[in-house]
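re: ur question from the group chat, yeah i did fold both. here u go
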Amino acid sequence: MNFRKAIKMLTLTTIIATSFSVSTAKTEAAPSPIILGYYTVDSGDSFTQFHNYMNQMSTDTFNTDAKGNLVGEVPKETIAYANAVEVLPYALVSNYGARDWDSNAAHQVLTNATAKKKLIKNMLALVETNHYKGINIDFEAVLPEDRKALTSFVEEVASKMKAKGFLTMVSVPAKADDDPADDWTGAFDFEALGEAADMIQVMTYDEHGVWRNPGSVASKPWIESALQFAITYVPSEKVLMGIPTYGNDWNLSDPANKSNAQVMWKDIPNLIADTGAMPIRDEETGSMYFNYTDTDGSSHVVWYEDETSILQKTQYTHKYWLAGVSIYAMGMEDYKFWEAISAGLK
């Protein structure tokens, strides 16, 4: 692991040294960073409002059932608009079920030959028929024992997509080490997936969620650990870093964590104003937080990102030579969010 990173650093140093020593060498402009926005059924008109800030998008509107059938609808007007304004569109297919991630549905389409064949056929038809440029596989809560099956599935999808001139992107959980037995991250063989896919989207958000104890949605140390691991096994020019457009509000008076809630980026200023809260920057994580007392007397803490932390964390794309960033999800942000992303990529 460290050897690979050392070799990469040595190679980069050699390239830089060579470029300075040969004054007659031609220079090429670095490729523009990818800025991918995720579109969901709740995104509203966010894409038409902010499309100038991005060059790719992915429609998170489909999931697969255990038999390989696709469930969902194509946002046809959004895809047509994306193509018209030259924003490359992906079709995202997940294994999200009625209320949560469906491990069994993923297991069936990854291991049952009939279901697998049907899903891949449906994915190809979805992309071809609806003027997408590629597929975005977003399988989560995949069983650790399905690790090899997941890799095989991605390899087959990518091969068939490539034969038709389409791209394949895989969304993967953020992790700092590879434990094949881990019940959330174990199924994801970054090296194999990185070889097969055109792009790996690392979900560097939800470090802390409303389902567990309070904390940063995406802290600096956690993001950096995840990115360091990712580029150890995946070419950095294939890696996208995820950035959230939301924060989380924990009701500290509810030990069962049943009344916690996600808070949209664009709603946070009003929440601060309404509660008279005093936001504080946590130096370790780079994130913001504040406490308030609700009208029912309950105590709350909110963790979120502001323009400064978004800008700073977006700059990791330079530090780790990444392809760019992915934004989850459109509809929760405002123009200040996109301005922070743009500033961080400069």
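okk and heres the other one u asked abt
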Amino acid sequence: MNLIEEFNTYRSQMNEKIMAADNKVIKRFFNLDTNTYSEGAVDIKTKEMIGLACSMVLRCNDCIKYHLGKSFEAGLSKEEIFEVFSIATIIGGSIVIPHLRRAVEYWDLLEEEKNTDV
């Protein structure tokens, strides 16, 4: 299992367990998160770029992977992703660099996976 599959499988399995607990507050929070990134006055691509930059500054590796995957699905180019990376690095400073490395690795994997599916 590659890094992308591992991340997505783990995330799905744990989300199922969390939702199975049927906690109203957690369910509402998850729903709020889903609705926040839905199409609205701001398009999905832009919302994912904002989410990615914020995740990098907050140094949340799972969040970074999630938003990279969603950005990839939304059709962001490598050039656009690197502009987001540059914004996050400027805002967050040098402490973001280790997360930048992991983000570049994950983006490369997303591109490789797409190229092997073609």
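fwiw on the second one: The longest helix spans residues 97-117. The two ends are 19 Å apart (CA to CA). idk if thats what u expected
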